[in-house]
Amino acid sequence: MQVTNVDIGGVVFADGEFMDGLLTFEGAGTVKAGTILARDTATLKFVVFEKGGTTNGNGVPSVVLVDDVVATGAGDVYCRPLMAGKVVQSKLVIDADGDGSNVDAAVLDGLRSFSVVPVKQKELGMLDNQ
Fold it and tell me: ∠ CA 42-99-28 to the nearest 5 degrees?
């Protein structure tokens, strides 16, 4: 028997409030939906959150991307991250890891302090009684 999980939902769980802003890229690339962002204290632009980061606030998780953001080169790209509301905890991503394997209690508490509340959710791809 093979079990396949079907991903049918997005990052936002409920009650999302969003903020327009600019995400700074150091080069071409994609930042995935679910990625935790910080706000640069010098420019007030968004940067990818770095666990343990100490440069201009990059170690303070504050918002979460709900869509992929793509840059063709270094510079700023428009984004609209979730600044308050509930997010699916299993969808959170730390950019350096490419997944949520290092999203720990400290990161979750940091998000909660900015009104981003991670919740655990189990997705089902079909009805339970089938």
Answer: 55
Residue 30: both structure tokens together: 């994609």
Alpha-carbon gap, residue 25 to 34, rounded angstroms:
17
Average pLDDT over all residues of the chain: 88
pTM listed for this prediction: 0.86
